[in-house]
Amino acid sequence: MGIIGVPAGWPADEEAALAVQRELRERLVLDEEGPAAGEGHVTGLDVAYDDGRDLVAAAAVVLDAATLEVVEEATAVGRVSFPYVPGLLAFREVPTVLAALASLTADPGLLVCDGYGVAHPRGFGLASHLGVLTGRPSIGVAKNPFTFSHDEPGPERGDFAPLLDGGEEVGRALRTRRGVKPVFVSAGHRISLAGACAHTLALAPRYRVPETTRRADALCRRALAEALAAERS
DNA sequence: GCGACAG
DNA sequence: ATCTTGTCGC
């Protein structure tokens, strides 16, 4: 497997990225309930970076939603395609993540992304972006509240408080473990917010972060370490 | 104008 | 995201 280059025509600056984001946003579908939690497949996606060498490694891990056992894993290594700009995260991760997804044999089912979906300055975060490009249902589970505000959710697993963008509920601060900081869930594409939260809880029976993200996180770090070792030889 | 800001 | 040791607790 070689290193994925930056795609031809990829946005070169923020202005171009904003234009692409605006176009793709029109294809976002938010009136579907989405797949039921605990059924079919769920795929965790994550990336790791080496800014010095301009490398990004992506992982896609397909789990059986009922047992949380690994069905299939895939990785891809690419060149960093965009700087980190809050609100434009997708342009940094998408090419390599898509390459990892494309090499899967199994049906990915629901895409579970590290970051936000519709809870985003322009309603089109990473999870929505990947959902639209693949046509698949997707959700975003972030570890930080980004620019949104929320009240403290109750202390029990399953307790939540709305994530607010002005007065609108764009996501939820959801507690997956008693007494532990919540995660921040939003719908990405072709799923409801309630469905996104149900999936998140089903995927996090024991740890704060969903099993999908934990698996994908470990795998992309491994892939990055291997790519770095290979590039030196 | 200044600071904050998913990963 | 990433740079980083030990340490408190289940």
Automatic annotation (TrEMBL):
The keyword DNA-binding does not apply. It comes from the Bacteria. Pfam families: Endonuclease_5. Its main location: cytoplasm. It catalyses: Endonucleolytic cleavage at apurinic or apyrimidinic sites to products with a 5'-phosphate. It is an enzyme of class 3 (hydrolase). It is found in: Cytoplasm. GO terms for cellular component: cytoplasm. Its cofactor is Mg(2+). Belongs to the endonuclease V family. DNA repair enzyme involved in the repair of deaminated bases. Selectively cleaves double-stranded DNA at the second phosphodiester bond 3' to a deoxyinosine leaving behind the intact lesion on the nicked DNA. This is Endonuclease V. The lineage of its organism: Bacteria, Bacillati, Actinomycetota, Actinomycetes, Kitasatosporales. The gene is nfi.
